[in-house]
Each structure stands twice: as C-alpha cells, then as structure tokens.
Specification:
about 350 residues; alpha+beta; nine-stranded antiparallel β-sheet; 20 strands; binds adenosine monophosphate; binds magnesium ion
Length: about 350
Amino acid sequence: MKNFFQNRFFGGLFSGSLAVLTALLFSGCGARIQEFQSVDTAMGTVVRQTLYVEGAGEEFARELTACVNRLEEEFLSWRLEDSEVFAVNAAAGTGENRELSGWMRELLERCREVCEASGGAFDVTLGSVARLWDIDTWAAAEQSGYVLPSDAEIAAALEGVGMDKLKLQSGTISLPEGMSLDLGAVGKGIALDELKSILSEQEEVAGAVISLGGSILTWGSKPDGGSWNVGVVDPFDVSNNLAILTLPGGTCVSTSGDYERYVEVDGVRYHHILDPATGRPAESGVKSVTILSESGFLSDALSTACFVLGVEEGLALAEYFQAEALFVDGDGEIFMTEGMERYLTPTT
Ligand code: AMP
Ligand code: MG
C-alpha cells in the first residue's frame, strides 16, 4: 500500500514523547549509531519504540508517532469528526455515494478479501454491534454498573452488519441505514505498514522495533547483528511470556487476545473480539492468536479473524494468506502453523 504520509514525514505534529537515550553504540564503518527508546501514546494505545539511529533519535520517534496519530485523525477513527471513516459513517442511510480516498478504497477492498476468505468472521462493518457493547469504554477489568445488551438490541444492531451490504464501487461508498465502519481490528497493523514504508525510505534508522499495543514491527538490523526478540504473552498470566519469537527485520506480529479489553459480569468475561454471526464476543475456544506476516494489515486482520474462527479454520485461513499463526486455546494448549516453529522458543 502506498505510504500516504511519506511526503509530510518531517512536517509532523509535536506529540510530546517521553524519550530516554539509553546507550551509545558504534557501527563497523564508524558512523555513530545510538540506541534510542521512547514510550508514547497513539491510537488509544501505548507506542514503544527502540530505534538504532544515526543522529536525532528523538526526532524520528516523535515523527513516527505523529504519523500514527495522523492516520487515526485523518482516516481511521470512528470517533474523531475529521476522519474519513467518521464522514462515511455519518452519511449512512442517506443514499449518498461518497467519494473515497484511493488509500481508503484500497484498504476496504483488502478488508473485503479477508472478510470473504474468513466466511464473514472478520467484518469491519460491525461498528453498530461494537458500539452497542460499548467495548471502547472497557478496560481489562471488572466494571461496576455495566448492563449487558439484550438479545433484541443485538439482533437490531446486527441488521446493519455485513460487508456484502456495503456498496463499494468505482471509488464511492454508500452505507445502508444502521451500518457503521469500525477499523479497530486493522488500524494498528496498517499503521505498522506506514511506519515500515517510512523507515525504508531513510538511511538514518538502521534498525527498529516498534509496538502499538498488540501489534509489533521489527525493522532492519541491530548494530551487533543480533535478531529481534518478541515475546508472546501468556493469556493466562499476562505478566509472563509463554514463548519468545526470534524474528528477522521486516516482520509484523499481531496478537488478539481475550485479555486485552473486556468486562466481567457475574464472573463471566465478555471480551472485545466479536463474532459477526452472533453479535456477541466470539466463543471459539481460543484465548489468544498471534500472527506473523510481512504485512501489518494482514497480521492484524488475521489475528482478529483467526480468533473468531478458532484453531482449525483459523490455521487454514492463516495458511491461505501465507502467514504464520500461533493459537493458545482455553486449556492452554498451543497450536501453530508449521512455519511458526522455526521462530519460536518456549520460555518454560
Ligand atoms: P483486535 O484487537 O485486532 O483483534 O481488534 C479488535 C477490535 O476490532 C475491536 O475492538 C473492534 O473494534 C473490532 N472488531 C471486533 N470483532 C471484529 C471482527 N470480528 N471483525 C472485524 N473487526 C472486529
Ligand atoms: Mg486485529
């Protein structure tokens, strides 16, 4: 996908990153490479960056975060009034055929492809159901006073769901009454693709590992030639990793888990990954799915889709898109694609 922001890379917003210069390293040819770390927020999540950079690491980190913020503000947010998704949602039911940016058109076509390949398990038109459950207000915690939606409310919200009901033709879009787009399942992955594109067009950052919540990009190489190590969170104890993935630069890793955002009512956990077939949190027997792909879009879309599909169909879907997948089921059993094994070192 074309990098929409590349021309404006250095015209960015100041995002106030908390940055810590941690070490000075030297590359073989004598140019000074510094390890630079920063922690910030964007897209409603924590952004952690480790950059191996020649020169001003702080400026790079700030610009990369600003790129993620612009993506959210100008395109992806269903909540911010200046975004393209907001405008498309606001026109639902009016019959208006809205002009789409080329970037958004391509993105929605790719979402449609994953939707079809997953038999509808991944569907970015389920905004009405996500808003009904109010998942964006959930933290990973018990929440007092939360009232579960009724069957009738869920059935009504589902009326507006289905990519097949979406009119997407020759550069325009029209949503039927009650439909609303929610790109929350792919936003972070798309952002990783944008960051990757920016990083590949400059020479100062030799290597990087950047995480946006549950989606992580490795890029380039470390000055010491070492590989990138990324932990797979244990969904039964999120303070621990159950495995370490040793990855080459250029890999996107996304995890969808029932521990990321949920509410508990009467001892039952309701999480944020919804099954478009039922309008309820998916009950596929899966606790978490981790996907590896060179594409951030695919890693993110497939982690959500595979969570909804469960182990068997999810493995087939990942293989169809030539991505690697690791599932942890409700009994703590691990299932993975054959190609995943070469990256994985269990921690116990
Ligand atoms: P992720 O954490 O990447 O699995 O994405 C979950 C987010 O995507 C939720 O917060 C919703 O906004 C949205 N979502 C939930 N279920 C689905 C689904 N089945 N298909 C597409 N988007 C979804
Ligand atoms: Mg996802």
